[in-house]
Amino acid sequence: MLIGIIGENCSGKSTLADALKAALGAELVTGKDYLRLAKSEGEALRLFGEKLRNAVDGEDLIYVASEPEQAALLPEGAVRILVSADLDTIKRRFAARMHGQLPGPVAAMLERKHGIFAEGVYDYRYDGVSGDPAALCRALLAKKNER
Predict the structure, then answer these.
(1) Is pTM, for the whole model, over 0.85?
(2) What's 98's domain CATH number?
């Protein structure tokens, strides 16, 4: 099963991905990690696209995407999960990553990007603040067993 976890920075994607990885024993790929597959970006992208397509009905793979162009790599048949959080939470989490400081330009970037994935089509919508990863894991396991 191919699972795409899609959302803004600091929305809770990695926390959810880690829970799903533990529950499913899936491989986890984040962002542009696929570039390690080959020396050239084009070849890496081709190989990664093949890997994603094979995972739809094959070995479990979780792909975490925080940019629209990354989410667009998910092929037909992938399970798409939108992870969201309110802007204040995202800013607070991002500031923590930056040792407590959130520079103005970074805050402005987060504000511009907030909601960029809201209009997409998703199989699941997950609250990255109060969502229950165990419940989503159970739902995905049930979906996997249906296949």
Answers:
(1) yes
(2) 3.40.50.300
